[in-house]
Amino acid sequence: MNIVIAPDSFKGSLSATKVGLTIRDAFLSEIPDAKIEVVPMADGGEGTLETLLFATGGKEVKVMATGPLGERVQTSYGILGDDETILIEMANVAGLPMVPREKRNPMNTTTYGVGELLLHALDRGYKKFITGIGGSATNDGGMGMLQALGGRFWDEEGNLITDTCGAALLSVASVDLSTIDPRIFDCEILIASDVQNPLCGPNGSSYVFGRQKGATEEQIKILDLALQKYATLIEANLNRSFQKIPGSGAAGGLGFALLVLGGTIVSGSHVIAKATSLEERIRQADWVITGEGQSDFQTLYGKVPSYVAKLAKKYNAKTLLLSGGLGKGFEALYEDFISCHSIVHAPISLEEAMENAEHYLFLAARNIARLLKNCSAV
Question: Looking at the 3D structure of the chain, how many domains does it have?
Answer without folding.
Answer: 2
